[in-house]
Amino acid sequence: MLTFGIKFLSMLIIGIAGGTGCGKTTVVKQIVQELPENEVGVISQDSYYNDLAHLSKEERGQVNFDHPNSIDFDLLISHLELLRKGQSIEKPIYSFVEETRLDETITVHPRKVIIVEGILVLSNPKLREMFDMKIYVHADSDERLIRRLQRDIKERGHDLEKVLYRYQNAVKPMHEQFIEPSKEFADLIIPNNHYNTVAVDMVRTIINDKLQ
Ligand SMILES: Nc1ncnc2c1ncn2[C@@H]1O[C@H](COP(=O)(O)OP(=O)(O)O)[C@@H](O)[C@H]1O
Ligand SMILES: O=c1ccn([C@@H]2O[C@H](COP(=O)(O)O)[C@@H](O)[C@H]2O)c(=O)[nH]1
After folding, report:
1. Ligand with minimal distance to 147 CA
2. For this UniProt entry, what's an example GO CC term (predicted)?
3. Best probe residue, ligand 1, of 24, 31, 147 (max atoms within 8 Å of C-beta)
4. Which of 45, 113, 115, 103 is nearest to 74 (CA)?
5. Do residues 4 and 208 lie in contact, with contact meaning Cβ atoms separated by under 8 Å?
């Protein structure tokens, strides 16, 4: 049996970090693709951006969304604790276009395996301690910037100037201060300048092992 030395608890929690555009969401989608939906759940750190409903759209535009203080880690941690106890949670929904939480929530039920992905999930010590396995997805910064530009313009309603301004003033400095240093906590680093099907298969094997 392939266990990679992981001590399996009742619920396996996997944390996946990496800089913006490194491909975290894509890797997670590939991992869960062939796994049973009712056994594996995914929680994105993005859902836990602070509720900024009290700010105007202009004020929200000034927020540093790459600093750990922009994330409600307490809520994320308490939700994971509830899931681990077998209870369901109401996960917030974050709109990248509105840059705030929506009023609706999504009910997430406990699963045998929960994947938590986000730029800062390995930077928070308390959250990090909850992970049975820690993964860092790496892609070079120029590759990430190209992907981010394409995605934010196409999917998140930003223009070229806004993406570049944010990249220089928040994304890059916060990456260097908080995200890149969190790589040292990873059990596994996935190189993702190109699609990495071997690494995806390895993680899927570990999860499948847990599901037997
Ligand atoms: N290995 C890859 N090669 C090329 N493009 C990729 C790769 N992985 C992801 N992408 C693309 O890059 C963009 C950002 O990927 P995404 O998974 O959203 O990254 P993240 O969640 O880390 O910000 C998406 O448009 C995605 O299709
Ligand atoms: O309202 C927002 C909130 C966050 N961002 C940016 O999103 C990325 C993190 O998401 P990834 O999917 O990992 O790229 C972060 O770098 C924030 O700058 C945003 O643009 N707007």
Report:
1. 1
2. cytoplasm
3. 147
4. 45
5. no
Kindly tell me if the per-residue pLDDT of 53 is higher than 50.
yes
pLDDT at 61: 87
Reported as type and span, the H/E element at residue 93 is strand 89-95
Ligand 1 atom closest to the CA of 18, numbered from 1: 22
pLDDT, tens only, 67-87: 999 999 999 999 999 999 999
Atom 3 of ligand 2, residue of closest alpha carbon: 65
Ligand 2 within 6 A of 66 CB?
Answer: yes
User: How far is 209 from 204, CA to CA, in rounded Å?
Assistant: 8
d(CA 201, CA 30): 9
- Tell the residue nearest (CA) to atom 13 of ligand 2: 20
Listed by start position, the domains of the chain span: 12-211
| 12-211 homologous superfamily | P-loop containing nucleotide triphosphate hydrolases (3.40.50.300)
**Could you give the C-alpha distances from 5 to 8, 177, 206, 212, in angstroms and in order?**
9, 31, 10, 16
